[in-house]
Amino acid sequence: MAHLYTSDEQIDRLVDFKGAREYHLTKDRRKKDKRMPLKEAIAEFVHDGDIFAETGFSYVRSPIQAYFEIVRQQKKNLTGIGSPMSNCSYFMARGCMKAIHLSYIGVEMRGNDKNFARIIKNKEAEILSFWSHGTMAQGFKAAQLGAPFIASKQLLGTDMIKQNPYVKVIDNPVGIDHDPVCLIPALFPDVCIIHVQQADRFGNAVISGPAINDIALAAACRRVIITAERIVPEMTIRDNGNASIPFMYVDAVVELPYGAYPGCCPGHYFWNREWWEFLIRIGTVTYDNMIDFTDRWIMNTKDQYDFIDKAGGMAVIDKARRLMEAAQGTADDTAISFDYQEVIPKWD
Amino acid sequence: MSNVAPANPLEMLAYNLSMMIEDNQIVYVGTGLPMVGGMLAKKTHAKNITLVFESGGQDPLEGCDVPWSVGCPFTYRKSPLTMEMSISFGQCALGYVDIAFQGGAQFDMYGNVNTSVIGSYENLKSILPGSGGGNDIGSLTEKSVLVGLQLPERFPERVDFLTTPGYLEGGDSREKAGLYGGPIAVVTQVGIYDFEPESKRMRIKALNPGMTVEIAQMCTGFELLVPEEIHMVAPPPDEVLEILRTVVDPRGVFTKMPGM
């Protein structure tokens, strides 16, 4: 495939095992205080031209407020990857991202992302490879394991194999069956940001709820930023022994309460469901809508507190906390209603 | 005479999905109607099933609302553990999942599914959200059930882009490609289809109340196989509809007809 926006070097870098290892070897070994403000962390560790990995589950424990800062800093020529990777849509709309390795972009039953569809159709951004969630996850997991590739039973027989320059089907050379397997190379994005419930100032990080691909991505990526709901004393994490990301992977630690809002963060807050429905059902529908929407919620919004104020302030965030507690069964849910006014545009 | 309103087409779909599930199975649940079907089964004839989700949620306790997404806290409410994504699909490969559900934009005569591209990537009509976990579940799970709205353009002879493998070109081509399991049924607003064991072509199994072979064929872009005897799906019992409407999807998020 000839590429519009992507160099061969960017294509190859994703699977450059040796290059990632050499990069990791140069990282500062000192266990030092890595705390810094969000703006500085994004400015220093997210570079133009990076292969940028989405974390969390698009709108579950995803570092959305940090993503908004990337858009505000107008990073350029990013290549998106992740399973899933629904936030890539607004990176593309705001000109930060020109290429993606596609697993899934959308908001499930809430609707297809028409902005992403329009941008790809108009060739304002390109798809470099097609993946399933599971095979992309295997690529990240292979990297974490330090294994050059994983032999998968997925992707076989599909058209994704024809639109994916990285994978290869062979007959299993080991074992007893010698049946077809699909080789998935270890995947090494340049950078990821991982939002966690707790971290210490060195970068040891605790994830509650589904980890999705984040433990693997923390190991695979060349650079890692942690944003955390809470910075806790190192001894709290030592007492519990429950960190899943070790400090040596981590370049920056940002204390960022509400960093996953308007997504949900287990243990903290439920989605702003109306915001996502507005984005997918109204915002993505036309180019102008998408620019208006992202102007309002990203470009003309200073930080997460400004965002929350615009979304309805204390009342909205308090409700989001109560809904999460009810959903997780940590509060008595009999008196808490999940009713809400679903966003259904008249023209749909 | 019953005073419970008869099932609408979406409720009928959810009911037929739920009836695919047998008690004590481990069920891999995707977003939308499959979620409703799985939860309805658990509330009615299959109380001892275990639900597992792509986000890694395992065996959640029952919540007070339908999950808003497969990553919703209701998919891991009080779960003993949650799994990383790569490992959660490993459950299907290792034979720990009995049945899974798969939606899509196109389904063809061999049960292949397209969730990627209409047209081709080089000559694009429209781009779809992508595989997500669909390919993984459909490649690995012992029994998968396809679910979608049945219209001729959504049921073409050949999918524009093969995202999730059904029986590929039919016959033994799925097995030869190295894939496990396979689709056992297609559930639509018209009825239930299976795959003829030799050719692996889609075949009418049972039709929903009021539907006919002619309607089924009119809603399909290829020739359906028609068995000698056509079964009709019995409408859901009133108590099942009550549970669906009051307990499983009380706000009608997935089973209320649009505009009604």
Describe the protein.
The complex is a heterodimer of chains A (348) and B (260). With 348 residues, chain A is of the alpha/beta class. Chain A is built from 13 helices and 11 strands. In chain A, strand 6 and strand 7 form a beta hairpin. Chain A is globular and about 60 Å long. Chain B is α/β, with parallel strands linked by helices and 260 residues long. Chain B is 23% helix and 18% strand. An 8-stranded mixed sheet of chain B has the order 2-1-3-8-9-10-11-12, sandwiched between helices. A two-stranded antiparallel ribbon of chain B has the order 4-5. In chain B, strands 6-7 form a two-stranded antiparallel ribbon. Chain B starts with 8 loop residues before the first helix and ends in a 12-residue tail after the last helix. The relative contact order of chain B is 0.17. The model of chain B has no long low-confidence stretch (mean pLDDT 94). The chains are: A alpha/beta (348), B alpha/beta (260). At the A-B interface, helix 6, helix 7 and helix 13 of A face helix 3, strand 7, helix 4 and helix 5 of B.
Descriptors for this entry?
heterodimer, A: 348 residues, alpha/beta, 8-stranded mixed beta sheet, 3-stranded antiparallel beta sheet, 11 strands, globular, B: 260 residues, two-stranded antiparallel sheet
- Tell how many strands the DSSP assignment of chain B holds: 12
SSE pattern of chain A: HHHEHEHEHEHEEEEEHEHEHHHH
Biggest sheet details of chain B:
8 strands, mixed
Portion in helices of chain B: 10-25%
Mean pLDDT of chain B: 94
Q: What is the chains' assembly state? A: heterodimer
Point out poorly predicted stretches of chain B. Answer: none
Question: End-to-end distance of chain B, in Å?
Answer: 24 Å
Beta-strand proportion of chain B: 15-25%
Number of helical regions of chain B:
7
Determine the number of helices of chain A (DSSP H or I, runs of at least 4 residues): 13
